[in-house]
Amino acid sequence: MMKGTTKPKSMMIPKTTTFIAMSLVITAFLLLGCFQFGICRIDKTTAKMGGIRDINNLNGIEIQNLARFALDQHNKKENSLLKFVRLVKAKEQVVAGMLYHMTLEANDAGKTKVYETKVWVKPWMNFKEMTEFKVSDVDHSV
């Protein structure tokens, strides 16, 4: 090469490619080490889309109203006279809206029975639907 001339671009490309490749390798190594040695953590208690999580306050007005709504819908659909006793357990699941999985006790002709129900809610559409209501096959006695 003659003095005063610059290197052709084709000779500069390998250095740039090498730099990018080394940067990616170092970044991957640092991230792997970060998770491997516990410096970075993923919180496993965070709710995931579609994941189901417990509702701890069973006495909350909203969840109580949803349980009673499900029972009322069942009574209308089946022409029955179940009477709400108490909410035993409730979970929520993020879907297109929220799906509530509830276990409740209801009085059927003087006998208390346990039922499983699901209510789908889309508040932005003013939508609420009982999607399932059945006698529970699980013993919920304490």
Automatic annotation (TrEMBL):
Molecular function (Gene Ontology), one example: cysteine-type endopeptidase inhibitor activity
Keyword Transmembrane helix: no
Keywords: Protease inhibitor, Thiol protease inhibitor
Transmembrane feature ranges: none
Record-linked Gene3D superfamilies: 3.10.450.10
The UniProt record lists the keyword Zinc: no
Domain annotation Cystatin: ranges: 47-136
Assigned protein family: Belongs to the cystatin family. Phytocystatin subfamily.
Protein name: Cysteine proteinase inhibitor
